Amino acid sequence: MLPFDFDYYRPKTLKEAVDLFQYLEQQGKQPFYFNGGTELLTLGRIDLAYTEAVIDIKGIAECSVMQVSGDHLLLGSSLTLTTVEEANLFPLLTKTASEVADHTARGKITLGGNICARIFYREAVLPFLLADSRVLIIGAEGKKIIPINDVFQGQLRLEKGEFLVQLATENRYINAPFFTVKRRQQWDTGYPLITLAALKIDQKIRVAISGLCPFPFRSPFVEDAINRKDQSFEERTEGAIAALPQPILDDIEGSKEYRIFVLRNLLADAVETLDRAVF
Question: In angstroms, rounded to a whole number, what is the distance separating the alpha carbons of residues 62 and 81?
């Protein structure tokens, strides 16, 4: 149970959702877009989230799209991780999403909810960062389509009243060789210590990481180091470690030193695996 009451709205169109947010904001209701709802329930119980009006966007058709359109795969933000996993239209996303929480939770957590969450893991964003996906966002100013790497900087940088509608990914990235591993320290479905996703495209390896810093990221500096083919695996890995963004997490899940130790081994495995991949 949440320690506060709220009004519940379920709009059927994008415009209705945006108009509702503006109206409720003017009424001082602190409206909250609701997709999977797991974060509101989790944070609301410990007084880290509050709203007087929930706008549930799961009934909006555009948010539940899952289809190939031309040379792109379109995925709506309201798709659950279980739905994405079972459809398996984007194997790297399937494997990464299948490691989030447990099966029961994945049936409730949505793609958009995970990507836009306040909790810093947000593993579902990693494949989209690697694939140069584009996001469809809507707000009071209308729709806009933006490369995810332009708008995701530690988190999805949304203006007040905006929400994520869809993600579009080119087929060539979907079919590219990939490597993804999640390491936990405590139990099979516990919070991750490190999640690493990598993809090989145009003979270059791309890397995105969650759980190392207080935000998921893809770094061009790490990728520059990883792709120095004139160096040994060890030199490439150490160059990538030296290029990591800061700060590195140091918490109950694992110390800074242990996280870097685990990451060093995962990077070496990713480089060795994808160096051999032909695409």
Answer: 17
**DSSP annotation of 28:** T
Domain boundary among 142, 173, 204: 173
DSSP-assigned letters across all residues of 78-135: T-BHHHHHHH-SSHHHHHHHTTSS-HHHHTT-BHHHHHT-SSS--TTHHHHHHTT-EE
Determine, yes or no, domain membership for 89. yes
Please provide the distance, in angstroms rounded to a whole number, between the alpha carbons at the two ends of the chain.
51
Tokens linked to 153: 């900087």
- How confident is the model over 167-207, as pLDDT tens digits? 999 999 999 999 999 998 655 545 678 999 999 999 999 99
What is the extent of the structural domain holding 50? 7-56
Question: Residue 209 sits in a domain of what CATH number?
Answer: 3.30.390.50
Q: Are residues 134 and 189 in the same domain?
A: no
Distances (CA, A) of 185 to 180, 216, 236, 253, 254: 17, 18, 26, 7, 7
Does any domain span residue 232?
Answer: yes
Q: What secondary structure letter does DSSP report for 247?
A: P
| The two three-digit tokens of residue 183, written as one number | 């390491």
Phi first, then psi, for residue 21 (nearest 5°) are -60, -45
Q: Is the peptide bond before 247 cis (omega within 30 degrees of 0)?
A: yes
pLDDT at 263: 96
Number of domains in the chain: 3
Element (H, E) at 185: none
